[in-house]
Amino acid sequence: MMRLPPFTYLAPVSVTDATKLMADHGADAMLVAGGTDLYPNMKRRQFEPKVLVGLRGVRELVGVRGSAQSGLSIGSGTTLTAVSRHADVARHHPGLATAAGVVSTPQLRNMGTLGGNVCVDTRCNYYNQSYQWRKAVNFCMKKDGDICLVAPGSSKCWAVSSSDTAPVLWSLGATVRLVGPAGERVIPISALYRDDGIQYLSKQPGEILTDIMVPVAEELRSIYLKLRRRGSFDFPVLGVAVALGMEGDVVRQARIVLGAVASLPREAAEAGRLLQGQRLTPELIDRAAEAAAKPSKPLDNTDLTHPYRKKMTRVFVARALRRLAGLPEPMARERPDLFNEEAKA
Predict the structure, then answer these.
(1) CA 164 to CA 211: how far, in whole Å?
(2) N or C: which end of the chain has fewer CB within 10 A?
(3) For residue 144, which phi and psi values (nearest 5 degrees)?
(4) Total-model pTM
(5) Domains of the chain by start residue, with CATH
(6) pLDDT per residue over 66-85, tens digit each?
(7) Which residues face 225 on adjacent strands?
């Protein structure tokens, strides 16, 4: 049985109090909301904080405010279940509702928060193991070692982003509010992430993610598709988020963002540019899907083989665009690759 290491739990009731506690305890402290990822990592000794600053009692972090017409502000402490079932989110941002609703299991979605999933730790087959397992292979640079066991010649860690909601929020042009000892700042969610498996967030020490702001959803279509081995629950081995700003049947804005193929969500910018000003035809969709596969460069560090995951990028992007366009998916005899899946989204 893996047990939690000893720690002190502090329970602030406001963001101001939580910020002060983080500043007082410095590097010894970590934030915890739902704890669905943090506590298992602590049991595996991947994280060893002496102090946990709990955010569950901070009511100002909970709730969905605003409207689709004026923009939504979602508190970082809002549970994934609440986000997935919120009427405005489900109606106007179905991609976000889907993403929040496919994280893990119902029980964990009832505990896990949107902010926690946005900031969830990167994953790797060599890292997400027990302490004894990691010790047997001489550890990796993400914890206790000095080399990347996926790419031993690399000077950086290649652990992958494992958030379902981050790619969708990126595609929607969301911003986040961070509050810390130096004050408050609002940044695009794309600026929150770094292409580094260890230092994967640009969040400063002691800063708290308080809100996720989603802009107006007028004439916007969004979708999220997830590849995972187990259909019931699992981390993504590929996530595809697509958001299209439409004017009639013409695409005016397009963002395609991939998850679980790098240490941060990866935008397929070229594919998005191909769609702008165009009508969604099967031929255009195929071209965009090919372009989206180019920045998808998965390594052998998560479930399923990396060549298969790269191939599925094209398949899932094509499938997402066809669904947004209201086009039927090709029959298996026309495009067998679209149905040759080891896992269903």
Answers:
(1) 17
(2) N
(3) 80, -15
(4) 0.94
(5) 1-59 (3.30.43.10), 62-118+161-338 (3.30.465.10)
(6) 998 899 999 999 999 999 99
(7) 240
